[in-house]
Design a protein that fits this description.
One of its GO terms (biological process) is lipid metabolic process. Helices cover about 45% and strands about 5% of the residues. By secondary structure, the protein is mainly alpha-helical. It has one domain.
Length: about 110
């Protein structure tokens, strides 16, 4: 389907050819997902001081973060995370892999 735009819990993005966790229900990924859920819960308290008051999370959002600790990975796709990713996230510019000679070959 094309490249995958992946953003971590600090809203830092990267572009890759595959999803970073293709086997979503792997026991190998359980502990990192639990730790990420705990970090996101902690982040819900400090993001207003880190990024500004407009990012303050209410008790409903924090309750959903607790669900993410109990069921790892569930809260990775909540609407307010998509909004925060759009506002705070950024992708590195792709490195050009086409040489000028390749471009000339396409024209000819």
């Amino acid at each position: 389907y094309g490249s995958c735009n992946y953003f971590n819990s600090l809203y830092k993005g990267k572009v890759s050819e595959d999803a970073p966790n293709a086997n979503y229900f792997s026991l190998l990924w359980l502990i990192p997902k639990l730790l990420n859920g705990a970090w996101e819960f902690l982040r819900s308290f400090i993001i207003q001081f880190w990024k500004g008051k407009e990012y303050k999370e209410n008790w409903i959002m924090r309750s959903l973060r607790v669900v993410g600790i109990i069921f790892p990975g569930v809260t990775n796709h909540l609407p307010f995370d998509y909004v925060n990713t759009t506002r705070l996230g950024g992708l590195a510019r792709p490195v050009a892999t086409t040489t000028p000679e390749d471009k000339l070959a396409l024209i000819a």
